Sequence to fold (77 residues):
Amino acid sequence: MAKKKAKGYVVINPELCKGCYLCISVCPVKGLGVSNKINQKGYYPVEFQEGDEDKKCTGCANCATICPDIAIEVYRE
Ligand code: SF4
Ligand code: SF4
Fold:
């Protein structure tokens, strides 16, 4: 049987994000990217961009740990 990959998902509050993009740099699956919708503070917040299988969130929490504004919550499945 194939080894099951760790899975998770993130909930990002776009209004708390200030667009520093630190989280993008620490995501091991490169799943985070910049939204094309501007938030009320005038920043383009981060969003999880669903891609192919190797871009699935692992629930590692690197992004939530580095976020200075506590804009990301991580859940593991
Ligand atoms: S680290 Fe936090 S504030 Fe910075 S871009 Fe990511 S979600 Fe936004
Ligand atoms: S929890 Fe890990 S894999 Fe998921 S979006 Fe954050 S840094 Fe990327």
Notes: The chain has a mean pLDDT of 93. The chain has one domain: 8-76. The first strand starts at residue 8 and ends at 12.
